[in-house]
Specification:
The chain is mainly alpha-helical. Helix content is 70%, strand content 0%. It is built from 7 helices and no strands.
Length: 168
């Protein structure tokens, strides 16, 4: 299919971009954000979410890295629906972390760091690992991310060092 034929199917380049973001979000949400085991104690869900996210990046589901974070930076100077969709996607990623941090704190009865601050730190670790693994072409980056997460969170919230793989 030609490029013009592809654009004709969507009506415009912007509609194609928005459809791509929507499809990518469905993939990310299904493989990372949804807890495959259903409801379980909040502390485990946070660690499992982080592990799923790291494995998602390790598997290079999005070959260019985190589509939302990387493209949000690119589109940040271009107002419009694509910029808005990417900004919302990044906010939803961070919000998912913040919700799980707060739930883990409630479940443990411990009051730790501000959930928004901790979510920011965790997001920074995961996104940085994703980008550096591509720049350095070194999978050890993910082991370093796991180690950093372990030092950032209480022991019960951290992904372990195993390189667990999600089913394809």
């Amino acid at each position: 299919m030609s490029k013009s034929g592809l654009f004709a199917h969507f009506g415009s380049k912007e509609e194609l971009q928005l459809a791509t973001i929507q499809t990518a979000w469905g993939i990310f949400e299904g493989q990372v954000l949804r807890d495959p085991a259903g409801e379980r104690e909040a502390e485990r869900r946070l660690g499992e979410l982080l592990e799923r996210w790291l494995v998602f990046s390790e598997r290079r589901v999005f070959p260019g890295g985190c589509l939302f974070a990387h493209q949000a930076v690119e589109f940040s100077t271009r107002p419009g629906p694509v910029n808005n969709a990417l900004t919302i996607a990044v906010a939803c990623q961070i919000e998912a972390l913040e919700e799980r941090v707060a739930a883990a704190q409630r479940a443990s009865g411990r009051r730790g760091k501000d959930p928004a601050e901790l979510a920011f730190q965790l997001y920074s670790i995961v996104i940085n690992a994703d980008g550096l693994s591509r720049v350095q072409n070194d999978p050890v980056v993910f082991d370093r991310a796991r180690a950093t997460i372990r030092t950032t969170l209480p022991a019960t919230n951290t992904p372990d060092n195993r390189r667990a793989r999600l089913p394809n």
